[in-house]
Amino acid sequence: MSPEDRDFLSELFEAAVGAADPKLALRARLPQRPRGRTVVVGAGKGAAQLAAAFESLWGGLLEGVVVTRYGYAVHCDRIRVIEAAHPVPDCNGLIASHALFEAVRGLTPDDLVVALFCGGGSALLPCPPEELALEDEIALNRALLASGAPISVMNAIRKQVSRIKGGRLAAACHPAKVISFIVSDVPGDDPAQVASGPTVPDATDRAAARAMRDAWRIELPERLVDWLKGENGTAPSPNDPVLAGHEVQVIASARLSLEAAAARADALGIPAIILSDAIEGEARDVGKVHAAIAREVVLRNRPFERPVVLLSGGETTVTLRGHGRGGRNTEFLLSLAIAAEGLSFASLAADTDGIDGSESNAGAFADGSSATRLRALGRDPVALLSGNDAWTAFNCLEDLFVPGPTGTNVNDFRAILVR
After folding, report:
1. Where is the MOFRL-associated domain (predicted)?
2. What are phi and psi of 182, to 5 degrees?
3. Has residue 324 got a pLDDT over 90?
4. How far is C-alpha 219 from the chain's CA centre?
5. 110: left (phi over 0), alpha (psi -120 to 50) or beta
6. DSSP H helices in 59-133
């Protein structure tokens, strides 16, 4: 891949991330100041940046607690920032959940709770029911991450094994008003899905969660299976009176970020096509579909004329079959590189929060020579894909994309350039 193409794709990623800048997103949405206290709560890989942005914009008195991933904290003067594990919970996450409940204890109708949630909050806020333990919620997360189920299914089940998700934190804020500012990292931008909706309830019940577990054949420990059979600790419904008057605003999303990237591409002289901002499915299958579209453009100049950059977002999944290292974006790219080997294109796929899976890279670059170069290094790209070892593939090629923590999260960013 030429340095020019790499720089072009990186600039589009930066435009996408910039459109989700917390301070920019919050500036025009500041609520009216309450007569009482202002309490900030939140969770997600960009929660500390959201908190710092709100703190600087608010100016007045406030207090609160947010939790973010290890290494993602930024300084706040009045809001406590706790770091915890992602994507598998740990005891610091449990401490953070208790701290959020403590922060909203004893509020009055004159008080205001500002909830700041973004992607990653589900894992960062473990809070199992009293009958279960942190180890049970860890086992649940491991099973869900390995299942290949879409995020909507994973979060529907998570909400049934929690004392904080599914609107339960909002219920604990009663009688104070809650305004939730959401940075969406889910296809369709349903705010109840982001971080499993601690302050945004939905109508999914225990029976629906059991049906989803069965449909996706998710293997859970017996203690969790037994818990899901019961009805203890159910979440509040969206029309529960204790949630009356609450507000929810999605302040950043994949759609807005892809539109910003498209505008940047146009400004740089390359027309952009947004395929979708809500693509789901197995990462390797989505890679094959994108490869087929790229092939049509390269070989037949259809359905879009060259030059063009194809943009897409959403959240793919990876069903673990091997024990390799990687994430959904590198898996997508390796599949794309195999299916489109020999074609003239350049691509970047990366998570907008700066982390793809559990490694330090956000994603990687790939082109029509990636699979060929892997073979020249003595590595079989098909075997690497079969073993879920896409990180190793792109590390060998020195094509990992490592921008560092971005302070936001609007899910996956994919760009395929055909000049």
Report:
1. 9-228
2. -115, 130
3. no
4. 23
5. alpha
6. 91-103, 121-124
Q: Where are the beta strands (DSSP E) in 228-333?
A: 247-252, 272-279, 308-314
Residue 411 has pLDDT above 90, yes or no: no
112-117, strands of its sheet edge to edge: 79-84, 63-69, 38-43, 112-117, 177-183, 247-252
DSSP for 212-226, please give it. Answer: HHHHTT----HHHHH
Closest C-alpha among 67, 95, 237, 228 to residue 167: 237
Confidence of residue 357 (pLDDT cuts 50, 70, 90): confident
The whole-model pTM stands at: 0.82
What's the CA gap between 150 and 202, in Å, rounded? Answer: 17
- In the chain, the N- to C-terminal Cα span, in Å, equals 12
Instruction: Write down the pLDDT at residue 321.
Output: 85
Q: How many CB atoms lie within 10 A of CB 110?
A: 12
Number of other residues whose CB lies within 10 A of the CB of residue 280: 16
Instruction: Give me 282's structure tokens.
Output: 């197995």
**What is the rounded average pLDDT for all residues in the chain?**
95
Rounded Cα distance between 386 and 395, Å, is: 17
Q: What angle do CA 64, 67, 73 make, to 5 degrees?
A: 100
Q: Which residues, at least 6 apart from 338, have a Cβ–Cβ distance to it below 8 Å?
A: 371, 381, 382, 385
Helix (H) or strand (E) holding 25: helix 22-27
pLDDT of 249 > 90? The answer is yes
Q: Tell me, what amino acid is at 181? A: F
